[in-house]
Design brief:
Layout lengths: L5 E4 L6 E2 L1 H15 L16 H9 L4 H15 L8 E2 L3 H10 L3 E6 L3 H11 L5 E6 L10 H11 L7 E5 L2 H9 L4 E4 L16 E3 L2 H10 L1
Parallel strand pairs: 1-4, 1-6, 4-5, 6-7, 7-8
Antiparallel strand pairs: 2-3
Length: 218
């Protein structure tokens, strides 16, 4: 058995190319509400939680404005928009292989829990994951990804030395560090870490097959 039998995954930019679907729904939300975006709606905004991203895009912290944008985004994304989500090439095979090897897979994502479950079902992946955690899975909402990972480990009685986190952004690595977990950065996503952003102890994988080799041999 590999050293880390519990594998925790980020979702957007790590397992799925959700950018086209998310960006289309952001653009539709601004169009529906008549709000002019304060910055370009592009791949650079993918990753943070919805409200944080809408504050960035709108240039406003006004609760009513952001709430209106959030409802318009959800109306678009949660109905049809999410169906444009695609798996990165090779990820489906990676997940199936890890599950077949007896590893326990979990999701820990900034994405809302409802579209996360819709996407996992849409891609036929729900059966691969024993646990799916999101910031809004709990009330009150969890404050950040580090707290979410801590909650997942505690709830499922997973020892830190048996778990590893996989993501595509520096926030993912920092959240792993905060919980004493090793971290592997995938470099095929839009949040790819550059060499100078990598920290001591972090590893990188350029393709799903390479990540599988690291996880099965770790």
């Amino acid at each position: 058995m590999p050293r880390h039998p519990h594998i925790l995954f980020d979702l957007d930019g790590t397992l799925i190319d959700s950018a086209p679907a998310i960006l289309a729904s952001f653009r539709e939300a601004f169009a529906r509400t008549g709000v002019a975006p304060a910055r370009t709606i592009d791949d650079s905004v993918i990753g943070p939680p919805l409200v944080e991203t809408l504050q960035l895009l709108s240039g406003s912290d006004d609760p009513a404005l952001v709430a209106g944008l959030a409802e318009a985004f959800k109306a678009s994304y949660d109905s049809e928009g999410y169906k444009a989500t695609a798996a990165f090439a090779g990820v489906g095979e990676l997940l199936a292989g890890l599950a077949e090897a007896g590893l326990t897979l979990s999701i820990a994502t900034n994405k809302r829990i409802h579209p996360t479950r819709l996407i996992l079902d849409h891609l036929g992946w729900s059966g691969h994951f024993a646990h799916v955690y999101a910031l809004d899975l709990f009330t009150p909402r969890l404050p950040d990804k580090a707290a979410m990972i801590a909650r997942l480990l505690a709830d499922q009685n997973i020892a830190r030395e048996q778990a590893i986190y996989i993501g595509d952004r520096s926030e993912d690595g920092e959240s792993a560090d905060a919980n004493g977990l090793p971290f592997i950065a995938v470099t095929w996503g839009y949040g790819s870490l550059s060499a100078d952003e990598m920290r001591p102890g972090w590893r990188a994988a350029a393709q799903p097959a390479a990540l599988g080799a690291l996880l099965l041999g770790a």
